[in-house]
């Protein structure tokens, strides 16, 4: 846990150094108030006892009373200042941490997001990490305040009643040890259960997500998935149950030492008062402090109950922030590219030994219309991910006009190669923003945006509402069907005239009429586009007008050529085309 505390302090120092320091300074001052108030209370009470006996107050009694009032006022001001610091600290941590997280995610190599270690880190980081940091930091500050208070009272015991010292040291040490033991047990359990809880939450999302729950109901699989969720939760609860029994034993031990502290302290104080070594004021002050110390240490576990979990999350957060980032692009593109060459490229996904692409060699002319076809699992989408720089080849090179694309980086490559994916993201933004992601220069060019909508058959529905919000995050938001969302995503293609576009199954969710309309628009795009495109398609009718067809099979280019050349060759493409033609003929 000490390592996690160190990580927490580092995060606070990086994201809110001034307010973090002021918070700790206020904590130090507040720790001094308790012993100072105790000493003043003792002097005031002794003065009152003297007045009851002699009828006169000590000369400095009013001065002590003023000091007591000043300390109480200062304590109130300090409490208000502490609240203001808490707000400012959280605001600054939230702003700087969210910015840093976004930069980290942006700069983290895409392929690393699939590593189990990265998944565990992301799963362990809370949805609101800044609040976790603030909560843990406040609790740590409270722990430091308690430690300061205990140290101050120990000094008073040494001065006023030395007989309390060995009792104090023995009992408080044992109480803190038992309290720490309970915290360590909970911390260890949380660390152990990170992956199990991730799986349990996944089952929970399946049972509560709109689309997944609907599909499970249709397949009558809800009871099965619910059983998986229950079994996983039962496993987690069983582990928690064993840990809770050990924690209960530690907390009961703490209670025993707390009771022993109270009885022993009262006995020591009573003996001192009886012998006359303690005045009435000193006795009352020390008795109050004994009760206060017992209450403070007993309540530590309630205050710090989930601190181990928060410390673990902040530790995971710091590990994530310290991950090695993708190297910045060494080279920059100065103009449009002419060709992409795969030179004996092989690729396997991280954590997998099975190669998806094997010794792949071919060249794409970025001015041509190319269609990529192949069976499911042949590596078509993987090939496009490599072209976009999202992954790096396991073996071989991918060259852009003779330069290795690894020297550019994905964002630099985005200047010349972009994609509309089959599993596109339905951005719950405006129509304008959804389209303009194809070319951000068109964001305020309404005529170009409406032209793109016309090309995908959405002008009548959305052309007059470019600034209308889509989705359900806004009260007036309009939700679209799956086919409409896909056509809107495909509209980005018609804005990116000067880059080579990859279209991954752009008609998968379209009806036959919508598919035919989009196909005609793609054919006409050649007249206006300055760059070509790569179309991934299962419907081979899209390949009829292509300049070139690539047939991918078992991770290799099995055939390439025009439609006529491949039909005359009588190979895999010819067989696939005739099979589809037979379906439509029937």
Largest sheet: 6 strands, mixed
What Rg do the Cα atoms give?
35 Å
Low-confidence stretches: none
Give the strand content.
5-15%
N- to C-terminal separation? 70 Å
C-alpha geometry:
elongated
Helical fraction equals 55-70%
CATH class of the largest domain: Mainly Alpha
Strand order of the largest sheet: 6-7-8-3-9-10
CATH topology of the largest domain: ABC transporter transmembrane region fold
Number of strands: 10
User: Which CATH-level-2 architecture of the largest domain?
Assistant: Up-down Bundle
SS element count, helices? 21
**Count of folded domains:** 2
Mean pLDDT: 83
Structural class: alpha/beta
Assembly state of the chains shown:
single chain
CATH superfamily of the largest domain: ABC transporter type 1, transmembrane domain
Could you give a quick summary of the protein structure above?
The protein has 586 residues and is an alpha/beta fold. It contains 21 helices and ten strands.
Structure overview:
This protein has 586 residues and is an alpha/beta fold. It folds into two domains: 2-321, ABC transporter type 1, transmembrane domain (ABC transporter transmembrane region fold), CATH 1.20.1560.10; 366-391 and 409-585, 3-Layer(aba) Sandwich (Rossmann fold), CATH 3.40.50.300. It contains 21 helices and ten strands. The strands form two sheets. It has a six-stranded mixed sheet with strand order 6-7-8-3-9-10, with helices on both faces. The longest helix is centred in the middle third of the chain and has 54 residues, at 222-275. The radius of gyration is 35 Å and the shape is elongated. The protein starts with a helix and ends with a helix.
